[in-house]
Specification:
By secondary structure, the protein is an alpha/beta fold. It contains 14 helices and 33 strands. It has a nine-stranded antiparallel beta sheet with strand order 19-20-21-22-24-25-33-29-30, covered by helices on one side. It has an eight-stranded parallel beta barrel with strand order 5-6-7-10-11-12-15-16, surrounded by six helices. Strands 23-28-32-31 form a four-stranded antiparallel beta sheet, with no helix packed on it. The chain starts with a helix and ends with a strand. The N terminus is likely disordered.
Length: 722
């Protein structure tokens, strides 16, 4: 038996383990980000270079507008940690690669990290001085991105880990120091100091300060940080005594005591003596005692007055922080970019108390991951472990990323999604980017940033997927990123015809905190979770009660009111999403089981699960286009990667190179305008031809191509001569 055939068989055995089909052959396919200048896939035509050339993008009538009044949408990615600081040699290569993929904005995340390269000087005992060399690398990268038409989103506070010299109480026990920024004046001062250092800095390569740089589209205050969330998650109890506790940690006793003192001072101003006496009786404390704050287990039994007062206190602290920082940035510092507060990110509980504050700023934002890994520690090896359900989103439309994200959009404000992903190694991840791009366009959202392109410096990038979130080496996600950039930025999917407005009274906003998780993600009784797959929805306000809402069936398919999107979710659990527009069409999910046919696209594939996205590259309808991009993707993996028996975790992440499950079978282009010749060119990881072009068989204007899986690829260029 030839050695290469034996290797494929062994690979199949390693990747099998139950659940998914076990006889799929995985084949090597690596994305080349360095040597692709002459790639046949170049979506940089979607970008206007240099970024910000005509001035600042503004927020108006609920959307982003360029200075000339034209609509602007973000097709973005995150760059995280050390990846924010490439060398002078790598920065232009990375920027050009992103532009070819259609990326038009980079969210710089964890500039303030402690675990990776950081803007903070490392040879000090505080975080109050910035590293000049790191700043220079960031400056050059931002300038190169601008040159290629790529905007910047600067995150101010993400992973800052305080040091002794910062003067922050209990600094060793705070992790990323979430929530204390809302009520600790010293930490607020440090936030403002860092904002001043960063935003008043002059980039020598763009010749402008960041506060007046039109290529800086957004400045974000804090990442996934909410005082209200900490309250209903029992992270304000003051019980943490562990050093370096991680991200989601309780505060220490010192901060819990300060918060209780602030709460009681607030009560003294808010209530008259009789009301304060009544509240003390509810809490069971005497006249000279402080009113204690509620814990999560006390919520349901707490009298309404006590519960709503405390909720109001936290909401006012959040609002004061966001409004104070917004005023500092825009008025004191003179920042001209748009400002985001933080994201609505916890969809197991309500996000509306937080949104009442963040929606007062320029842009509203949301985060959602499909089956984010749950982490733990192996009791035997003491190594960090993870677990995922590893099931397809197409079989669970009412809990999809689309439905979860749709709850956060607010009328009159641009809405962005600054973090989303189908984290690796989910075997159905090929569905994620295409579905979200189509429905984001349908909902008329203003931007998506996938998390994340990379964590490491480019000099360390390998042809192996190193973690749950890194998109850069994943052939499936990179291919779909390029194809869907065209679909989303061009606006191929028509916005919904009907907008369902929702509104909430102040009491409903607070009472939503006590609703059970079974009401997720909307926490709006009477609002059907299938509605966001039929229409779009926005929050009209937080000053009046809303409802009743339209009753919607949950049958299959769930069809958008434009007729362009369909979500099939039958009892056989063979879900499928279809996208049918003139310029872009897609079949995503269990294509083999359903044998779908769209106006210009049908497929008879051998794969159990896959994504097939076809889009015009010349702006013409598919039927009359001369250049089409076909993204045909299924699973991705690392070589020698090993699943556990349930296919819910990886005992071994494997090695380079990355592998793909090629999509095989027959693809038909239907109802094509008369033409002379049509050919399909399989592409390699650099977007260059990997084999001779194939011609399709013509039957009455329908052209059928064989997807043979050899050479292995995730994308094809289709050329048409008329």
């Amino acid at each position: 038996m030839p050695a290469k055939h034996l290797a494929v068989i062994i690979l199949s055995l390693l990747l099998s383990g139950g659940g998914f089909a076990q006889d799929i052959q995985m084949k090597p396919f690596a994305i080349d980000w360095r040597d692709n200048d002459d790639s046949l896939v170049d979506c940089s035509f979607l970008l206007d270079a240099p970024a910000g050339r005509d001035g600042f993008v503004r927020a108006e009538d609920g959307h982003f507008l360029k200075p000339n009044g034209k609509r602007f949408r973000i097709w973005g990615i995150n760059i995280t940690g050390a990846a924010c600081f490439p060398s002078e040699q790598d920065a232009p290569v990375v920027a050009a690669h992103l532009a070819r993929l259609g990326v038009n904005c980079v969210r710089f995340h964890f500039l303030d990290s402690n675990w990776s390269a950081s803007l903070f000087a490392r040879d000090r005992n505080d975080t109050r001085e910035l590293d000049a060399q790191q700043f220079d690398r960031l400056d050059y990268f931002v300038a190169e991105l601008k040159k290629h038409g790529i905007y910047t989103n600067l995150n101010l506070n993400v992973g800052r880990t305080y040091r002794k010299g910062d003067g922050v109480m209990d600094y060793q026990y705070l992790g990323f120091a979430k929530v204390i920024n809302y009520f600790d004046e010293h930490v607020q001062m440090l936030h403002k100091e860092y904002a001043r250092q960063l935003l008043l800095h002059t980039n020598p390569y763009t010749k402008s300060e960041y506060r007046s740089e039109s290529a800086v589209l957004i400045v974000e205050l804090v990442n996934e940080n909410s005082l209200i969330e900490a309250w209903f998650s029992d992270r304000l109890l003051g019980k943490n005594t562990q050093r370096n506790p991680g991200t989601w940690t309780d505060v220490t006793a010192w901060y819990a005591d300060r918060l209780t003192e602030k709460y009681n001072a607030w009560l003294q101003k808010r209530l008259d003596s009789a009301e304060l006496r009544e509240l003390r009786q509810m809490a069971g404390v005497g006249e000279d005692e402080l009113v204690p704050r509620l814990t999560k287990e006390q919520f349901d039994a707490a009298p309404d007055k006590r519960f709503h007062l405390e909720a109001t206190f936290y909401m006012e602290l959040e609002r004061a922080y966001f409004e104070g920082m917004y005023e500092f940035l825009t008025e004191t510092l003179g920042v001209k970019s748009l400002v985001v507060g933080t994201s609505d990110h916890n969809h197991w509980k309500t996000g509306y108390p937080l949104l009442t504050s963040t929606s007062r700023l320029d842009v509203v934002d949301g985060h959602v991951y499909w089956q984010h890994p749950s982490y733990g520690t192996d009791p035997t090896t003491k190594r960090r472990t993870f677990s995922i359900p590893n099931t397809p989103m197409v079989n669970n439309p009412l809990n999809s990323t689309v439905v979860q994200l749709s709850r956060s959009a607010v009328a009159g404000k641009p809405y962005t999604v600054s973090e989303t992903n189908h984290p690796f190694p989910n075997e159905y991840a090929c569905e994620g980017i295409g579905i979200l791009a189509a429905y984001a366009a349908f909902h008329d959202w203003d931007g998506i940033f996938f998390y994340t392109f990379e964590h490491k410096n480019p000099q360390e990038w390998q042809t192996r997927i190193p973690g749950h979130f890194d998109i850069r080496p994943d052939p499936v996600k990179i291919t779909n990123l390029a194809a869907c950039a065209v679909l989303f930025l061009r606006g191929d999917v028509q916005p919904a015809l009907e907008t369902i407005a929702r509104s909430y009274s102040a009491e409903q906003v607070r009472e939503g905190i006590r609703l059970p998780s079974s009401e997720r993600p909307y926490f709006t009784p009477g609002f059907a979770a299938s509605l966001p797959l039929r229409h779009t929805t926005r929050i009209a306000g937080f000053d009046r009660a809303g409802g009743p809402y339209e009753q919607a069936g949950q049958g299959s398919p769930i069809v958008s009111d434009t007729g362009q999107l369909g979500w099939y979710n039958a009892a056989d659990k063979k879900g499928l999403v279809t996208v049918e527009t003139d310029k872009s069409q897609a079949l995503i999910g269990f294509v083999k089981a359903r044998h779908p046919a769209l106006k210009n696209l049908s497929a008879a594939v051998e794969n159990e699960f896959c994504s097939i996205i076809l889009t015009s590259l010349d702006g013409e309808p598919i039927s009359s286009s001369s250049r089409l991009l076909l993204a045909a993707t299924a699973r991705s993996a690392n070589s020698k990667m090993i699943w556990n028996r349930k296919r819910t975790t990886l005992p071994d992440w494997g090695t380079a190179p990355t592998l793909i499950e090629p999509v095989t079978g027959k693809l038909t282009l239907r109802n094509m305008v008369p033409l002379q010749r049509i050919e399909m060119i399989p592409l390699d990881g650099a977007g260059k031809p990997s084999a001779r072009a194939r011609t399709g068989g013509n039957v009455e204007g329908n052209f059928t191509f064989e997807l043979a899986g050899e050479p292995a690829t995730t994308w094809y260029l289709i050329r048409i001569r008329r």
